[in-house]
Amino acid sequence: MIKCRLLFFLVFLFLILTGCSSANEVFQESNDKNSSSNKPKDTDNEEFGIGLGFSDETSVDDTQTIHKFQQGYNYTPEVLVENNFPETFNYRLFFFLDYKQIKVTKNKKESSYINLKLGPKKSEKFHVNLPHVKEGLHDLVVIAIRDPDNYLEKAQYVDSMEISLSRRVALLVGDKSNIPADIKFNTINSNIPVNDDVYTEPFISLTEKSANAESLIPYKNIQKSRLNMGASAANKKIAIIAFSNTKQIPVNNPFIIVRKKGDFNFVLTNKHYLENKKQNLYTTVIEDPYTTDVKKLNLFNVKLTNLISIEK
Q1: Diameter of the chain by CA atoms?
Q2: What pTM did the predictor assign?
């Protein structure tokens, strides 16, 4: 199993004062010294990582985890992406509102994702326009993928922190901002008890009892793919997002509630949702959907599996 790596991959928060706004921007960064084949050359003694900031003047406090505004407000948050590597890399940003991929507008161009090319140690800051957000409580998840069209040629473990970073914001819209979307949670029973401080990080296996994290999966075996993970508490609510290089992929259980603390797995999706071509599969687990608890929103409980490539 892949256990929680709290001491191995540290994520740092920086509160950066924005020069032309009264809002503070929360900047999230992934740092790593020991990457795999996706690691840039000649960087054994150098720290590197991805930086992702997401802010708006409607934030209720300095954490930038809750944005509150009235229905009809022109919501144009600012995004900051940093390439803290000594090489040029492509990045692709995905936006999920209420756990569904949405189109956003950057520089008057609407798209279901945003591509960036950043030089060594370079960054880009820009505003995005989101589609109309209805009254109520909403979850917004932003995920940045580094080198999204680079595929594994052989089976190897590449941790998600090496190739991705995410931000999550609760949107409180209008006078009924305490009412979340009407979601049905499927009940899942954990079958493996865990200790108080150790639980399974998300990974994909091809059999129910396998503890091996897959990284290179033949297209014909997609329908056998099982999402393995752990619930850190009883009655834990979890949302699941899966997507390929460009689009979201339907999953069998997008919203689950786990009645007992422990580990479990289930079949993730069906292969007919994916084209039979070389591509990457990203699976994201989000704990406590639709929470307005700032502490939970600050726990970085948006977790991706390791990099998985699909081969024809």
Answers
A1: 54
A2: 0.87
Q: Which of residues 173, 204, 229 is at a domain's end?
A: 173
- Concatenating the DSSP letter of every residue in 173-185 gives ESTTTT-B---PP
Query: Judging by beta carbons within 10 Å of its beta carbon (0-12, 13-18, 19+), is residue 256 exposed, middle or buried?
Result: buried
Number of residues assigned to the chain: 312
Q: Do 306 and 270 belong together in one domain?
A: yes
Considering the domain architecture, whether residues 215 and 121 belong to the same structural domain is answered as: no
Residue pLDDT, tens place only, 138-196: 999 999 999 999 999 999 999 999 999 999 999 999 998 888 888 999 998 876 766 65
- 105: domain CATH number is 2.60.40.10
Half-sphere exposure in the Cβ direction for 163 (13 Å, CA): 25
Indicate left, alpha or beta for 235 from its phi (over 0: left) and psi (-120 to 50: alpha): left
Question: Based on the domain organization, do 166 and 17 belong to the same domain?
Answer: yes
